[in-house]
Design a protein that fits this description.
Helix content: 25-40%
Structural class: alpha+beta
Strand content: 35-45%
Radius of gyration: 22 Å
Number of helices: 7
Order of helices and strands: HHEEEEEEHEEEEEHEEEHEHHE
Distance between the termini: 51 Å
Number of strands: 16
Shape: globular
């Protein structure tokens, strides 16, 4: 082929790449917001986790895990910037036992549009607040997930894709501590490297997890990986269960949990991060907070000093990270 023809083909290819980039849809935060709000509602939920690829010599695949429940997702916050662009959406999950009506405050997910920082699981029982690169967060949403006590779990940053009329958000890969389903029975790994995907589907939504189970050293480096795991949480709209107890619980305790979140925000939104002085199950802090919430539900007053006392005993701030200067 003549050099001129090769050059023309190369230029045509570059033009095609530029056209494809121009054709990519611009960020649509309003559509993203509607997708996130599409997770609100009352659901029958199935949780499924399967170890897939075995990465460590001699490692045997753990049994598949199956569970489920009845869960309502309640809106806590839906705020916007001065120009009307969405800013922050907070969703609270609450479990209900269909037979007894017993309520359990479950996990929480916060969505922040174009967040400039997020917390990261950096070491055992430790989360550090770190900046997000501007190119990475532009047009993207950072989802942060919290424990039943509103303690931090993990964050991920990614963009919503609305192609073909289906809204899907996919995170980057980040670290998280062991899930509750595992840390009471596993000692062969201490962290998970994960990618999360949320999709709004007819009649509900789904949460997919691509998890790699790993052993991390104290300095945050990965010593080894043992297995990959696929997680699939299926939320299907439910009209058979009476979720009134969950709504009543949240109506009675929302103000209390707002005060609890303010304590966590002091470490995560305003500080450098935190370290939990509890065991990995976190029960030393979960029990007093849930006890206080129960008292509030019964109409009793819980003073700020009582909340502060629980945090003072089990949570401590971490200092700012030092960055070594190259010589």
């Amino acid at each position: 082929m003549k050099p001129q023809a090769t050059l023309l083909l190369l230029l045509a290819g570059l033009a095609g790449v530029a056209s494809a980039q121009e054709a990519r849809p611009a960020a649509d935060p309003a559509a993203d917001r509607e997708a996130i709000l599409g997770m609100l509602g009352e659901y029958d939920v199935d949780f499924a986790f399967d170890e897939t690829v075995l990465l460590a010599p001699g490692y045997e695949r753990a049994p598949a895990m199956r569970s489920g429940g009845s869960e309502v997702v309640i809106l806590v916050e839906d705020s916007a910037r001065a120009d009307g662009t969405p800013q922050r959406i907070v969703l609270q999950h609450i479990l209900v036992d269909p037979k007894s009506g017993h309520v359990t405050k479950h996990w929480r997910q916060d969505w922040i549009y174009e967040a400039d920082k997020r917390f990261e699981f950096s070491a055992d029982q430790t989360w550090r607040v770190r900046p997000i690169d501007a190119d990475k967060t532009r047009g993207a949403w950072t989802q942060c997930v919290y424990e039943v006590s509103d303690a931090p779990r993990y964050c991920g940053t990614g963009k919503w894709n609305h192609k073909y009329g289906v809204a899907t958000w996919t995170s980057d890969r980040t670290w998280r501590p062991l899930p509750r389903r595992e840390y009471t029975r596993r000692e062969d790994y201490n962290a998970m490297n994960v990618e999360n995907r949320h999709t709004i589907v007819p009649g509900g939504w789904t949460h997919e997890q691509d998890n790699t189970k790993a052993v991390r050293a104290a300095d945050g480096s990965t010593e080894r990986t043992i297995a990959r795991e696929y997680g699939f949480n299926d939320y299907r709209k439910d009209t058979d269960v009476d979720f009134t107890p969950a709504h009543d619980y949240w109506k009675a305790t929302a103000g209390y949990w707002e005060r609890v979140r303010a304590r966590w925000d002091g470490f995560l939104a305003e500080g450098n991060g935190l370290h939990l002085k509890t065991k990995v199950d976190g029960m030393a802090l979960i029990i007093p907070l849930f006890t206080q919430a129960a008292e509030v539900e019964e109409g009793k007053a819980v003073a700020d000093a009582e909340i502060d006392a629980a945090f003072a005993e089990w949570v401590e701030a971490v200092p700012a990270e030092t960055v070594a200067t190259a010589r």
